[in-house]
């Protein structure tokens, strides 16, 4: 008989209780079955584990080694079983998450901090990426969860509404539009624009809206971050269209202001994009549900 976990449990229970019958009762196992397991193991190993007597059993020196090492093996096996059970239930695991800059600046820090406190056994690896890149990584299976500002029907992905924000016009304090209560796109298209580089969702909204009017966007500069774009605006090198809720640090330290844009395309719903399928970690769904329900972020 191989040295299986049940046999180890029988040996430990008998050693701790001092008799085969008491050990069997502890495990809710028939005495004959427990005795047969011990005898088969002794025959397999070629050593005596217990010395039997009418008063019970006494552990031999070989038995003490088996009890000591076996207890460690059983503890590790129990931990492994717990870990696997928690993994399957979404209570433990690792999640690779990609998010747009708006989510990272507006809502994720506080919500992820609370998630880490309530789910300490789930490790979240977060990286900032643009929406097209996020969707590609999710579809390729290289990420588990993403935050994007558009829900594009895609096989293998599920989209859950996360938070809303709005784009606004960033201008220097001295700009002719700085004191306006709101502006419309047609009156902006003679301006030089500082835009975000690459295939990002913010610039795409601006370009698509201008295309619908049959007008081009005059791009003066392309920057990699909200902060860099705001600094160029502060220097008088153009205006920018950026998420209003993400600009608190720049508004606090730069001579710029944000003017609301009265256009439907500036209203955004950001979505949690979740990879589905049998290989998607259950911990990813736990993360999505926790972030979605956390209204305090």
Structure in words:
- By secondary structure, this protein is α/β, with parallel strands linked by helices.
- 43% of the residues lie in helices and 24% in strands.
- Strands 3, 4, 5, 6, 9, 10 and 11 form a seven-stranded mixed beta sheet that branches. The protein has a two-stranded antiparallel sheet with strand order 1-2. A two-stranded parallel ribbon has the order 7-8.
- Strand 7, helix 8 and strand 8 form a beta-alpha-beta unit.
- It starts with a helix and ends with a helix.
From the structure above, extract its key features.
297 residues; alpha/beta; Arc Repressor Mutant, subunit A; D-Maltodextrin-Binding Protein, domain 2; 3 domains; seven-stranded mixed β-sheet; 11 strands; 43% helix; rod-shaped
Order of helices and strands: HHHEEHEHHEHEEEHEHEHEEH
Compute the number of strand runs: 11
Q: How would you state the average pLDDT, rounded?
A: 90
What is the structural class? Answer: alpha/beta
* Helical percentage: 40-55%
Ends: how far apart?
57 Å
Query: Which geometry do the CA atoms define?
Result: rod-shaped
Count of runs of 4 or more consecutive helical residues: 11
The total domain count is 3
Largest sheet: 7 strands, mixed
- The CATH homology group name of the largest domain: Periplasmic binding protein-like II
